[in-house]
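S1.2 Input.
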Amino acid sequence: MMEALPAATRAALEPVLGPTEPIVRYLEAVGCSLILTDTRLILVREGVSYRPRSGVQTWPLDRSTVLRSTPVRHGTGRVVIDREARSTSVFIVAAHWREAEHLIGEARSRMEPAR
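S1.3 Output.
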């Protein structure tokens, strides 16, 4: 799946991904990309090279990470990522909303404790 990513996103991910960490889902958002691996959620902002501190953000897929979404209004919806009193919003155009729902569902299933 790495080959399908835009070149800038791929370049930003290479130093972040573990050697055997697979990409499960990729979602194009407004001004950024969300990448779901088997163990974490990664946000890569456009212009990552100009944003050394916030260009790439990661969250582990555990009980402390909360994903929620808002309804699509005026052509965009939001995916909100909360963890330890820090919140990040990612805007998704309506055309990609179904993909966002799949990414959220997959991430939530990976956050549930093993039974």
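S1.4 Remarks. The longest strand covers residues 76-83.
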